[in-house]
Design brief:
The complex is a heterodimer of chains A (about 170) and B (about 180). Chain A is α/β, with parallel strands linked by helices. Chain A is built from five helices and four strands; from the N terminus they run H-E-H-E-H-E-H-E-H. In chain A, helix 1 packs antiparallel against helix 5 (about 140-155) and helix 2 (about 40-50) packs across helix 5. The longest helix of chain A is centred in the last third of the chain and has 16 residues, at about 140-155. Chain B has about 180 residues and is α/β, with parallel strands linked by helices. Helices cover about 25% and strands about 25% of the residues of chain B. Chain B is built from four helices and seven strands. In chain B, a hairpin with a 6-residue loop joins strand 4 (about 75-80) and strand 5. The chains are: A alpha/beta (about 170), B alpha/beta (about 180). Chains A and B meet through helix 3 of A and loops of B. The complex binds iron/sulfur cluster. Iron/sulfur cluster (SF4) binds next to helix 2 and helix 4 of chain A.
Chain lengths: ~170, ~180
């Protein structure tokens, strides 16, 4: 055993980078989604996980039903006011860092349910990173949203896309 | 049994309790006085010639904005079906605007328990002697009855606590002989 002298002409067995970049790269390619599915959109999400569209190509294969183990919340379906506190609790239980996709018009804006029981967009109670339009959205749109989230993870400095700010809902008790 | 003989059969025993009867879309409707609901329903269920074993649905209606004048603001419709004889009937009652109340039939038909709770939750009709008359579709803190015509359909209410269903669970467990210890 001898002391190996440093020879710059040899190929080096290591690379240099920033620690944040490695972390972001790992996070980006190993998202663990937690589907919060309450309606038809959740069925559409199953299509995304299936072999046809195959979300695992993006590293987001491990669909977890435990908020403590997941970092990407996908809200798929109609959220009612009765369900809202539960959704909030699940979001709070997820560990940082975490991201949220609002899938479909129901979760994003209440959709066509303009009535007494449906929440007019989950951004009233939790922050949303990416909204997906459509009723139901195409699976490609969901993959696109996952890619948007990945971009966001990779460049944490870039500002999130401008979210539309909704007025505080008016409640009369 | 056709509708005519069905009606005759009900009339023989309960003539004084019937307000009106008519046929609509080949479906017999019998309007009765609300205080006799248990009488009639249990008769329909137990009489060997009728044998309405099934309570298909229990529907509540708010007639306050209906063009025709009705006997009361609220209507309740009991849809009954006989599996043995394959005939059907709808029993209708009308309830007043103030304090709409009627006897529960949860002990005659098991599914009436939930159907009555739904009618209470959405329409505000109270059922006497119901074992667990609390909201079923809406949150426990919800104020008002949303299917009433005077409830603004887009009035939303802020509900901040998850609803605990343990009271029902404990009851079910106790029925099955399991006693839950907490804490
Ligand atoms: S957006 Fe459309 S498909 Fe999705 S939950 Fe709502 S109604 Fe269903």
């Amino acid at each position: 055993m001898g002391v190996k002298t440093y020879n710059p002409n040899e190929q080096l067995p290591y690379i240099t980078t920033r620690r944040e970049a490695v972390l972001a790269w790992g996070r980006k390619n190993s998202l663990w989604p937690m589907p919060f599915g309450t309606a038809c959109c959740a069925i559409e999400f199953m299509g995304v996980v299936s072999s046809v569209f195959d979300i695992s190509r993006f590293g987001a294969e491990l669909v977890r039903f435990s908020p403590r183990q997941s970092d990407l919340l996908i809200v798929a379906g109609t959220i009612t006011y009765k369900m809202a506190p539960i959704l909030k609790q699940i979001y709070d239980q997820m560990s940082e860092p975490k991201w949220v996709i609002s899938m479909g018009v129901c979760a994003s804006s209440g959709g066509f349910y303009n009535n007494y029981c449906t929440m007019q967009g989950i951004d009233h109670i939790i922050p949303v990173d990416v909204y997906i339009a459509g009723c139901p959205p195409r699976p490609e749109a969901i993959l696109d949203a996952v890619m948007k989230i990945q971009e966001k993870i990779e460049n944490p400095k870039t500002k999130p896309p401008a979210q539309f700010k909704v007025k505080e809902p008016k409640f009369d008790y | 049994m056709d509708n005519q003989s069905l009606l005759e059969h009900i009339k023989t025993k309960h003539l004084s309790e019937i307000i009106d009867a008519y046929e609509e879309y080949q479906y017999l409707n019998v309007i009765i006085k609300p205080e006799f609901i248990r009488n009639i329903i249990s008769y329909l269920r137990d009489d060997p010639n009728l044998k309405f074993e099934m309570l298909v649905d229990l529907v509540s209606i708010d007639y306050s904005k209906y063009p025709e004048k009705k006997l009361g603001r609220f209507g309740l419709v009991y849809h009954m079906k006989s599996l043995t004889h394959n005939h059907r009937v709808a029993i209708r009652v009308f309830l007043p605007e103030e304090n709409p109340e009627i006897d529960s039939i949860h002990d005659l038909y098991k599914n009436a328990n939930w159907l009555e709770r739904e009618a209470w939750d959405q329409m505000g009709i109270r059922f006497r002697n119901h074992p667990n008359l609390k909201r079923i579709l809406n949150h426990k803190d919800f104020v008002g009855h949303p299917l009433r015509k005077d409830y603004p359909i887009d009035r939303r209410q802020w509900l901040s606590e998850p609803d605990d269903l343990m009271d029902e669970m404990e009851k079910r467990l106790k029925e099955k002989g399991i006693i839950l210890r907490r804490g």
